[in-house]
Amino acid sequence: QLQLVESGGGLVQPGGSLRLSCAASGFSLDYYGIAWFRQAPGKEREGVSCISRNGGTTTYANSVKGRFTISRDNAKNTVYLQMNSLKPEDTAIYYCAAEREYSAGSSCRRSLPYTYWGQGTQVTVSS
Using one digit for the tens of pLDDT, what is the confidence trace for 14-25? Predict the structure, then answer.
């Protein structure tokens, strides 16, 4: 009953853009911090970005700073990752993950563990 579903992945040329969505079912994201992770073939899972419960805190991996933007719309129970200026090295399966926060806006992290995970969406950047 507690599900996260990613969407918005696909094939895009270098320099292009995609917006990923992470929609929650069975629970409200109002009380959860959210992170985006990605995993490329043969690579470790990488924390790309995170956003705190109230959206007041966000962080980004150095590799995506200035290109990616995380946001949330709690009314829609959805978190987004806007990805611009995409590079081939951004190719990976992208996952969203949620962890309950007991204090509003308390923290944001791009490290494991996370309790709830989506199934992943493939992003391929290639000419």
Answer: 999 999 999 999
The residues that bridge with 124 in the sheet, in sequence order, are 11
DSSP strand pairing (18-25 vs 46-51): unpaired
pLDDT in tens, 75-124: 999 999 999 999 999 999 999 999 998 876 567 899 999 999 999 999 99
Strands (E), the chain: 3-7, 10-12, 18-25, 32-39, 46-51, 58-60, 68-73, 78-83, 92-100, 116-117, 121-125
Which residues, in sequence order, are bridge partners of residue 72? Answer: 79
Which residues share a beta bridge with 42?
Answer: none
pLDDT mean across residues, the chain:
94
Q: Which residues of 74-97 are buried (b: 16+ CB within 10 A; e: fewer)?
A: beeebbbbebeebeeebbbbbbbb
Contact call for residues 29 and 96 (beta carbons, < 8 A): no
Q: State pLDDT tens for residues 11-59.
A: 999 999 999 999 999 989 999 999 999 999 999 999 999 999 989 999 9
